[in-house]
Each structure stands twice: as structure tokens, then as C-alpha cells.
Design goal:
- This protein is an alpha+beta fold.
- Among the domains are: about 5-310, Glycoside hydrolase, family 65, N-terminal domain (Beta-galactosidase, Chain A, domain 5); about 725-805, Maltose phosphorylase, domain 3, CATH 2.60.420.10.
- About 30% of the residues lie in helices and about 25% in strands.
- The chain is built from 20 helices and 43 strands.
- An eleven-stranded antiparallel beta sheet has the order 1-2-9-10-11-12-20-16-15-14-18.
- It binds alpha-D-glucopyranose.
- Alpha-D-glucopyranose binds next to helix 7.
Amino acid sequence: MELPYHFDDGQRAVVFHRHALPAPWINYLSNGTLHAFVSQAGGGFCWWRSPVIYRLTRYRHYNLPIDSPGFYVYIREPDGTTWSPSFRPCETPLDTWEARHQPGRTTFTARRGDIEASLALFVAPDHDAMVWDLRLKNHGLRAVALDVFGYVELSQLIWLKEVTFGYYNKWMVRVDHDADLDAVLYLNHLEDQPRMDRSPLVYFASTRLSASFSGNRDLFCGPYRDERRPVAVERGQCENSSLRGGEGCAALQVKAPLAAGGEERLAFFLGATPGVLKNLPGAIAAAHETLRQLRAPGAVQEQSDKVDAWWREHLDVMQCAIPDADAQRQINTWNPVQSVHTGRYSRSISSAATGLRGIGFRDTCQDMLAIAYRKPQWAKEMLLYQLALQFEDGHTANQSWPEENRPAEESPRSDNHLWLPLLVSAVVSETGDLGLLDAPVPFLAPDLVSKVGLATVWEHLMRVTAFTESHLGAHGLPLILLSDWNDHIGTFAREGRGETLMAAQQYVYALRLMLALAEACGDRASAEKLGGLLEKQCATIRAHGWDGQWWRRAYDDDGRPVGTSSDTYGRVWLNTQSWAVLGQVDGRDRLVRGMDAVRQWLDTDYGLRLLAPGFPTWPEVDRPAVKGLPPGCAENGGVFCHANTWAIIAEAMLGRAENAWKYYRQLIPHITLQTVGLERYQAEPYAYVSTVFGPENVRHGWANVAQVTGTAAWMDVAATQYLLGVRPEPAGLRIDPCIPADWRSFEVSRTFRGCRLRIEVDNRAGVEKGVAALVVDGRAVDASKAPVIPASWLAGQATAHVSVRMG
Ligand code: GLC
């Protein structure tokens, strides 16, 4: 199959050969406060802090043409021919074209006749401004006077109000050209913004003097036209229109005369400064200062270099050299890149997701697992934020909106609180900072806004166990409450008596992590208590969880088991097979048999189904087990990629590399896309999706919910910590790979607690798992006990060489 893209691994780039892909394949650009996403076709939008209340520019989700509008540059030649480096929106035929995504930057390079243009989009690390860095080159023998127009369509800031009341609220849109700044300024004086004190001033400016401007989208485009052929560009001049009500845009025309063989570089800046409604002169002054800095010679290049430096530092924390190019690219670049995005955006915003979801509690706990090992400080901040969303009885909020000044959302689930110990353990394991357990953190009050009480992080964790212990059902397993990780599992517990085996196993896993922390602190009393709870829950799981060939999934309101060999639908469920292993809830025999059932019943060549067979839905049945989802879709027997990661970890823990690597490789997006076929799969070949339609559905192979998925973090953890096996623990760094037997050697470089480790693994023995020797700078670890490099051996050392012999 001829693919419309290739990877340029040396540049950490994915390069697109045509714009017309089955879907927008996006890249996120961000400095942590100002954000944008942009597709291979230049579609996308920009927001400041929150995509729901500070949406600066427009993007029409679910619309036709897909993926518009975006960040549009029009190059107008003297004869009126107009084209765009991103191809869209003009769609003028070009002689050459490519788009490339790199971490933090998207670049379009195009040529038409003698003119070559390269447009790089990124967000300035030091300013809340997006930079459109345009380079032009004239390969011809004659001078050419080009006109360049930059254009964005403005949004009304508060997205939900825009789609519901935009026909009134557009009256509050005010756009002007400020002559001092030579910038288009946009402010929105809609009342009742969540934070009037923060409302941003939006500016659009250039490094060049502007020749004309537009603030009025409808005048810029012209009646019954769109961005493809705006009348202003056709005319060769914007109408210099301010706006006091209407559909806003920010457009600037600048002149770019190119000598024969000449080159020019210019930039547009799209930025925001806060507080415009309370202090207009202050906001303008801030924009002034930012523009003064960004317009200084060399500033654009400096900001661009800083983008690269941020990503280099982030990615360098762990890099591998392995005999599998597709896995290596994923592990070294694209997976950790996506983990940063999910760390920032949770499940909220993408070309398909509108941003309303805010931060999911369970989601962010999981997302931070992949941040903890690269940026533990960031993970720690989010951990403290999450802990303060726990109620005094131990359960937690379900959803929150940190930027939006609105109450958290509460609806108790079986699992939300159970993710906290995982995150605490990940942060402490990476940093070794056991003192974190003593940090005081408040609880969330019942009003869902204020904070009450103060308790140590450890006490918060103990309340996690208290909540689960006080919400056990008739069999002694956790009650389903509204759901566990499976959002739809609540259908088995409409009357509140159903029980979940997955949460039971997850609880055991959490208890094990807490036990390890208690032991590391020498807290014998807690260790004893946790050990008792652990034994009790394991015994309950063993007594009621095993079905004979695999693990059951749940019990319904009437005490009937779910996921048994006598069930017609939903006979085998993935999660309880893998979490049985993660929690080590029983001896090896049953753990292996559960995972054998996974291979036998759930595997497809493009991922593991979440359950099989899928349940029928309305109108065939009255009370569908999986609300309204057709068979093969998402939780109803779809390939749920997120859940595949736990099966990979489980197989790695069992030492079965063949299964682990099969499951890992078949979901590398570049591989899945090829297995399924581009037109069927549709999503990005460099970012995980949440779910792929399963074989029971006519659209089998269709990838859904791209980018914003827990798959990213867990796949990152699975690959680095369980397949390559470099896993932080409170006491040090475990090295316990599970690799294909035919790998003879591989290398990992990893920064751990300030020490740069070069880890060389020798597998001449040809095994899949097992460390026979582990030597750190000539000093041997007793690998027969546990292959863990004691953190004390690395203290104060800048580098260390680690040699590992498998066998
Ligand atoms: C989505 C949700 C997540 C849930 C999962 C399975 O990814 O964001 O919270 O656990 O689906 O239902």
C-alpha cells in the first residue's frame, strides 16, 4: 500500500504527502497556557487556558468541509493568483507540497512556479502567542511583489454560548485595528463570563507594517463565499473594517517584495493577554510589550529554538535503541509526545472532541502516570490538585474544570478514588520523596467548591481504602455504584446491588502499591492493616471471581455472575483477565488461563476486544447491557485500546513476550493503519485512538476518538516499564525486560533521580524474560533477589553505566 505519509525519524517528524487524508491528523502546539491544534491541511483553532471559555478562534466540529477553518495564509501573486502553503483553504494546484508535524511545530512547505513558501506554526514558550513563521523564496530571475494575507476567524470565547446564543452574543464582539500596535485587537464584552477579571484581549499582528486589515469575516470573505476565495484577497486589499457586533475575524495584509533569487522571512502573531474588561490600557500595554519582544530581530528564531529545547529535554529522559524500528519510533517520540497532550487536555479537546469534558478524575490520574517518569514535578502538582478533589469519606469528584471557575461534578464511581494510590506511587517511585506522603492536603467540601479539613497524603490514601471497604456488596466485592472504569458497567447495577470484579482487582493492585509505600516508610501498623485488607479481598476474588476457564466480570443486582461460560453475550471480558494479573490475585495457573482466554476469544489482528460476543441493543432487546452501543463499538466488543495496555502489562508480568509484543505491536498506530487500511482506519498513524470498531460491526477497523485517550499514558508505561522493563520503585530502579527472544541486545538511556544511566542489555541467551546479572559501574546487584538498582548507588552521580545479562 502506498502511504500518504512517511516518518523522518532523524527529525522526529511525520511528513504528509497530501492534504486530503480521511480525517484531520492533528498536532498540538502549546506553551502550557496558550494552545492550538493544527491539522495537515492547516485546519485548527487556538484557545487560551480553556477551550470552552477562552476559545479565541473558530473551528467547526462535525461540519463540512471537515477541518475548517484554520490558520490561513494567502500568498497573492501580482497576476492575482492566490495560494496557501497549507494548500487549504485556497486549493490552488501547487508544484510541490508537504506538511510535517514535529513535537510542538507544524510546517508546510510548498512551491508554485518560482515561489517557495514555508510556514511553520508554533506557540512561543515565553509569550502567550502563536507564531506563524513564514519564509518566502523567489527561485526566479525576476523580482516579484507578493501580497501576503494572514487570517483567522474569531470565536465568541464561550463555546457553548456561541453555539446556543451566538445570534445575540455576536453583538458583544468588538474588533479594531490599533495603529500604535499595528495589530487587530479583539475583545468580547459579553457579561457573565466565568471570570470577568481574566477575559483576554486577542491580538493579531505581524513583523511587517500592515497594508490593510479586516475585522469583519463576512466582508473579508464576501457573500456566499468562504475562506477558499475571499473577496478581499481577490481584490488585493482588505476593507479596513472594524466591528461593533457581528462575525469577527482578524486579517492583515502585508507586502513581501522578493528580489530575483531573494528570500524574505516574516511572521504573524496571534496572542492573548488577560484582563481586558477590567483594564483595557493594561491589556493593550501587555500586548504592546509582547509584540515589542517578538518583533525584535532574532526573536522568532529564538522562540522556535526554545520549543525544540523543551521537547528535546522532555524526550531525552528516556530513549531506547531496539531492533524494532516501529516500536522504537513510538517509544522514543510519538507516544511520549501524546502523553504530554493527554496530560494537558485529558479527554477534552481534539478535532473531534469539543472541549466540554474538562478533566476526568480517573483519566488524569492515569494520564499522569506517563508524566511522572519524565516530569515528576508536573505529576506531583496534578496529584495534589486531584487529592484536593477527594471528599472526607474517601470518594472523589468525577470531573473538574480547573480553569473555568465552576464546581466539580460528583457522581460516585467504584474506581475513581482507586487511581490515587497509583499516581502517588508513581511520583514517589520516580523521585524517592517519601516526605510527600506527609504533605497536608485539604478535602473537597460537599458544596463541590470549597475545601475542608487537612490531612496528609497518606491519610488521603487510607481513606481510599475506607471508602471501598464501606461499599462492598453481598459477595464482599466492591459495589458497582455508577460505574467502574467501564462507563457502561452500571447497567448491571441499576438497583445498586451489583458488584464489580475489576474494581476488586484494581483495589488489590492499589493495596499492593500502598503496602510497598508503608514498608518503605517503615510504617508497620499501616503495612499490617493493608496486608490484612489485601488478603481478604484476594480471598473474596478467588472465591467468587473464577468461572472455570476465565475470570468473571461482575455480579448483577440479583447476584447473577456476568461474564460466564453460559452467557450468550459478554461471555469473556478483557479487563478482569488482565487486572487479575496486575493485582496478582491468585496463583499463576489461573492468571495464565485468564490470559489464554483473552488470546483465544478476544484477539483480532488489530487489537483485543473489550468483551465478546457483543450485546444486542434496542429495539431487539429492551434493556441493553451496554446502553445503545451497537455490537463491535467501543465498550460493546470494540477494540478498546486503553484496555489493551493492561493486557500487554499482564503478559509482560507473566513473562510471555510473544503475546505481550503481539498486542503491543498490532496497536502501534502506524501498524494498525496498515493492517486495517487507511480509508477504513482513518486516524493518525502516530497517535493512539481510544477505540477501534471490532469485527462484529460493518465499520470494523474504524478508529475513533483520536488523540485524547488514556491509551497514550498506559501504552507509554507498558512499553517503557514492562516491555523494556525500566521501572522506578521507591527503593530504586528495577530492570526487568520482557522482550522477543530473538533480540540479541538493546540499549536504554534513562535519567533517574538526577543520574543519567546508560543501560546495555545483553540477551545472547535468547530468553524472553529473566535477569541473570545486573552490574552498575562494575558493582553487581544481587539479581537473584530482585533486579533493582538501589537508589543509594546512584546518589550524587551524574552518570552510570548499567550492564544487564538476561538469562
Ligand atoms: C473513556 C473515558 C474513561 C473511561 C473509558 C472506558 O476513555 O474517558 O473515563 O474509563 O472511556 O469507559
